[in-house]
Design a protein that fits this description.
The chain has 408 residues and is mainly beta. It is built from 3 helices and 29 strands.
Amino acid sequence: MSNIGFLSLPERKRYTMRSSRLHSFRALLVVAIAASTGAYGFVGAVSALATKAPFHVSQILRGTSLHHTYTSTGSTATHTETLSRPDDISRWGNDLFVGFQNGVGAQGEASTDGNLDSTVVELTLGGKVVAQWDVRGKTDGLTADPGLGVLATVNEDAHSALYLIRPSAPASSAVTRYSYSESLPHEGGTDAISVENGQILISASAPGTAGTAAPQPTYPAGYSVKLDATSKVARITPLFFDESSATVANKGTSTYLTSTKLALTDPDSSEIVPSPGPRFAGDFMLTSQGDKEQIYVSGAGTAHQSLRVLSLSQSVDDTAWPTDTSGSLYSTDSTGDAVDVVTGRFVIDQPIVAVTPCGANGSPSTCPAPKFPANYLATLNSNTGRVTRVAITGATYVPGGGLAFVAR
């Protein structure tokens, strides 16, 4: 398949001079120009063409090839089981770190076989396992930072804690559990982790699980966290709140650049937008999955902090920003218990998202369902919030959990 959709307009003109498909391309160009009079404009039409080039998916690791040993709840007997339900993923140098939840519940409840432990696995970019560590609880957020180590939150709904893993340390001292400095004021758990200039930023997930239903003006949507290595305490400071004010970021709408009050019910995934280049470069981004919104925080944790909100056409989980046209997108597939790599022709500055229709507020209790398909991979228009599905070939793949882009 031709990669013409990824060329600039001058490059495409040169391409057609060499191509025997001149007539076909002219027809395609006419369609794109016609679209320029619509809601998305010529640039939107080109972006739509770009998504038609298929991406290829290859599995690099299966949870069924790995095992961990645990002590069953209420017993002293040890058991061994395969790893399952990979979720978040993060890159550190030439290695990846993936959290396998192993059936543990969202508040740390034991799995059906009595297991209470998730497993964090270190693997190479080619899928070779380097090391693994167990942590008590259901691991949700996971990020690797050279200045800190590997950070993992557990229990997204309640009874949450934070783990620090130092991969180079002896096994007996590699894992440290941190308790939060107070009962989480949003009455929920914690999920995604981002690190910006040494500042740890954690999403305040499942607000209202143990209290009044969200949104509430006193519920933080995220926390800035500092670790006290002596006391093993993670000290939290609210970053912003579920009903904070934000500037509407959707271009082409009547409310663009106006102020609105947020009403967040599902803070979830987060990222630091790479800089320089894309819109929102350098911002801390928090996805409110059920609300189909992304909050972009400039100057996070400073006196100059400001919020922008981008409404999305679909519910999404993780987001990755390609920084190279020929890089690789690493992804977890919780349904297939696999870690996958997605390759193809990426568009720089065009984010890739894991779309989760069944994660939207108002989705049916039995899902997938009509108009609520299974998860899929898509591109995100950072100007309009429009989500566009991309074509996939190769291994069976249902994105669920984390995305990590690695430049070539």
